[in-house]
Amino acid sequence: MAGLVAVDNIVAEYVTAPLEEIFAQAFDEQAYDITELSFSNYLFLTSTGTCPYIGLPIFPSRSFRHSAIFIRTDRNIQGPRDLIGRTVGVREYSMTAALVARGMLEDDFGVRAADLRWRYGPAGAGDSDPIVRMKPKDIELEPLADASNLSDALLNGEIDALVAYKPPQAFLDGAPNVGRLFDDYDLIEADYARRTGIFPIMHLLGVQRELAERDPELCLGVCDAFEASRRYAVGRTNESQAPFTSLPWAPKEAARSRQVLGDGFWSYGVDANRPALQSLCEYSYAQGISARPVIVDELFVPVTLGWTPS
User: Fold this and answer.
1) Digit-coded pLDDT (tens) for 28-43
2) Which of 31, 58, 132, 197 is the most interior residue, by most CB within 10 Å?
3) Contact 285, 294 (CB under 8 A)
4) For residue 89, what pLDDT is reported?
5) Is the pTM of this model over 0.90?
6) What 3 state SS string does the chain have?
């Protein structure tokens, strides 16, 4: 967007908006030729054969989600297995942050999505209503009572826990009896990364299917441009003379990330990310989201399956 990297033979018009708005306009209105997409909702729509987009192996958002689980600290929830049978809030059951958090709970602690009672609603006061695209199979999922929101529901005890991609206001306000399931989440997430080799993917880039079929070379050009942008951005986190970021210890944090995740910790391409991609496909079906098992390769433009960032 800053004009530092160009896509060959393309003059692009960039649109920025809140992510929820971008996703809705893309999935429901096909508003963009190329767009950032929620990975989980893209998986679901691909499984039903109704997605207007096909993926490019570009992943602009990644995040570990142990830190995304908030609890009532007065309900004797000492660890993940104490969530079994509890009522848990989520903005959208099919959002990727929740998909990954639930997958981790099952893989590492044996807590299945079906073991919990799910409630959905706005994240906080003034938040937009969630878009409910599907009803998960064999999962209890109901709206919050009394047109509430998730932060207030956690605060007043209507729910026992909450999975949220950003901390709820009740937690930020230091409300009593509201805390994280994993207080030392950064250490736990680093251990998870070392054990699994996975840095969870939240979003991918999608291109309209008709455009991808008509111009596969465009897809490769977009991938090359985003890879050049990625290298520029990641490289600048190492600067110390005149730091590129506003974080005072950014070079040290960048070094820590490389130590835990490897030099290519934020990589593009299918093969470099196959374990993370495979986990998303498996989680989606196990949690009642995907209508059928989806294989990794069907998620991406065929010509990009062999694309190797350079």
Assistant:
1) 999 999 999 999 999 9
2) 58
3) yes
4) 97
5) yes
6) CCCCCCCCCCCCCCCCCCHHHHHHHHHHHCCCCEEEEEHHHHHHHHHHCCCCEEEEEEEEEECCCHHHEEEECCCCCCCHHHHCCCEEEECCCCCHHHHHHHHHHHHHHCCCHHHCEEEECCCCCCCCCCCCCCCCCCCEEEECHHHCCHHHHHHHCCCCEEECCCCCHHHHCCCCCEEECCCCHHHHHHHHHHHHCCCCEEEEEEEEHHHHHHCHHHHHHHHHHHHHHHHHHHHHCCCCCCCCCCCCCHHHHHHHHHHHHCCCCCCCCCHHHHHHHHHHHHHHHHCCCCCCCCCHHHHECHHHCCCCCC
Encoded tokens for 182:
């994993």
- Give the whole-angstrom CA distance, residue 72 versus residue 74: 5
Low-confidence ranges of the chain (pLDDT < 50): none
Report residue 43 as tokens.
């998986």
Q: Which residues of 43-57 are buried (b: 16+ CB within 10 A; e: fewer)?
A: bbbbbeeebebbbbb
Residues in the chain: 310
Q: Distance between CA 163 and CA 82 in Å, rounded?
A: 15
**Going from the N-terminus, what domains does the chain have, and what CATH number goes with each?**
19-63+200-304 (3.40.190.10), 66-195 (3.40.190.10)
- Name residue 145's amino acid: A
